[in-house]
Amino acid sequence: MCYLNNKIRAMNNTSPETYHLHKRTILREIDTNHIAIVKKIKSRIISKDAKKIIDQVKKIKSVDPLKKVSLVCTKNICSKSIALLHENNVEIFYEDI
Fold first, then answer.
1. Residue of 6, 64, 69, 91 with fewest CB within 10 Å of its CB?
2. Greatest C-alpha distance within the chain
3. For the segment 5-60, what is each residue's pLDDT rounded down to a tens digit?
4. pLDDT at 3
5. Where are the alpha helices (DSSP H) in the chain?
6. What Å distances lie between residue 41 and 68, 69, 92, CA to CA?
7. pLDDT at 97
8. How confident is the model at residue 1 (pLDDT cuts 50, 70, 90)?
9. Can you name the residues that pair with 77 across neighbouring β-strands?
């Protein structure tokens, strides 16, 4: 479990079109080779959502295989989703709304 510090919160958003993702997807560049998918929603992230996130991670990796991809979300995420994301090497950062 990781919480974002102020340095990471201040990072710039990246264009999702670069990675062939939907334009409503929010991407935040954390470091030069590290990008995060931001899912700050009030409802709970379930395993169906986690599978969609993994598909987005695969699209990002297909464009830039060296990029590390993480998820920024609230604490409203089910344990199955956490396990599924960890199996696919997606680090999770928690941030309040």
1. 6
2. 32
3. 554 555 678 899 999 999 999 999 988 899 999 998 889 999 999 999 999 999 99
4. 57
5. 6-9, 47-63, 79-87
6. 23, 19, 15
7. 74
8. low
9. 45
Tokens of 12: 């710039």
Please tell me the distance from the alpha carbon of residue 57 to that of residue 52, in angstroms, as a whole number. Answer: 9
List the domains of the chain with CATH numbers. 6-94 (3.40.1350)
CB 56 within 8 A of CB 21: yes
The answer on pLDDT for 92 being more than 90 is yes
Q: Is 82 left (phi over 0), alpha (psi -120 to 50) or beta?
A: alpha
Question: Judging by DSSP bridges, how do beta strands 91-94 and 68-73 pair with one another?
Answer: parallel
Residue type at position 85: L
Coil, strand or helix: which one is 4?
coil
